[in-house]
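Much of the work behind modern protein science is quiet bookkeeping, done one molecule at a time. The fold becomes a row of whole numbers, each drawn from a learned catalogue of backbone shapes. The protein below has been through that process, and both of its lines are reproduced in full.
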Amino acid sequence: METAGIGKLTPSRESTEAGIVPLQGHEKFRSGDADETRSFVSSIFCPHSLEPRTRNGKVDALVNHAPVGSMSLNYLRYGVPVVVDPGELGRMFLVQIQLSGGVDVKCGQQAASLGQGHASVLSPTEHTRMDWTGDAAELIVRLERDRWKIPWGPCSARLCPNP
């Protein structure tokens, strides 16, 4: 069984307070349409459901994407509260670093509310569900499961206070 861990990083407010968006030179997608956004984000990560928690069903999505060998660096913002349910990630690990806002994440039997400066490592073999706040933005590292070994050991069955 692959494992997942959730921990806290030292917050860096400089980028979000200064309005700097990571990977600005790699903007790949911007849309207000939830279905277009789900389709594009699925093409980078995996198929998933995307449910905006707004009356009009719109989003304000921005995706910056930079492939680097067998991994990719990604900046993702939905701009409104959303629920994202990819189920099992299958072929990849995701390292999600919360830059702003918050996300309630459940991966297998682990659950946590993450705020700015927190990070999670999502297992490819555990069902994942995320509930994003409207101001949430993440830097996401996508790691191909077959090319990387992620040894989280003791974090497999509990939350990790410090990675």
